[in-house]
Amino acid sequence: MMPSEIRYALLVHLAWELRTIPVSSWLVVPYCAEPVLYVAGGNGRKDAILAVQRNGGWWLLWRGAELDGRQLGIAARHIATAVAA
C-alpha cells in the first residue's frame, strides 16, 4: 500500500473503534491533500486527528498527543475519555 492508502485505512479503522465507544467522527478526504479524521470535542469544537509515518511506524497526532497507530483500541479510548471530559 502507498502511504496515503495506509493513512486512510488507519483513520477509517480508528473511526470504527471510536464508533463502538461511541464517539462521533468525520473523515475528510480532500481531492489534493491527505485524509484527516475529526472528532467532536467540547462545545461543538471539532478536533483533527492526523496519521503520520515516523521512525518506521504510524502515529496518530491529536491535541498534541502522539498515539501508537498499532493500538487503535487504546488510542480510541484515550480520545473518548478526553472528549467526554
Short account of what is shown:
This protein is α+β, with helices and mostly antiparallel strands and 85 residues long. It has helices spanning 3-20, 72-84; strands at residues 25-28, 36-40, 46-54, 57-62, 65-68. α1 crosses α2 (72-84).
Question: Can you walk me through this structure?
Answer:
The protein is an alpha+beta fold and 85 residues long. 36% of the residues lie in helices and 33% in strands. It contains 2 helices and 5 strands. A 5-stranded antiparallel beta sheet has the order 1-2-3-4-5, with helices on one face. The longest helix is centred in the N-terminal third of the chain and has 18 residues, at 3-20.
Helix content: 25-40%
Could you list the spans in which at least 5 consecutive residues all have pLDDT below 50? Answer: none
**Which value, in Å, is the CA radius of gyration?**
12 Å
From the helix content, strand content and strand pairing, which structural class follows?
alpha+beta
Number of strands: 5
Average of per-residue pLDDT values = 92
Estimate the strand proportion.
Answer: 25-35%
| Widest sheet: strand ordering | 1-2-3-4-5
Largest sheet: 5 strands, antiparallel
Task: Provide the succession of SSEs.
Answer: HEEEEEH
Shape verdict: globular
Terminal Cα span: 37 Å
Helical region count? 2
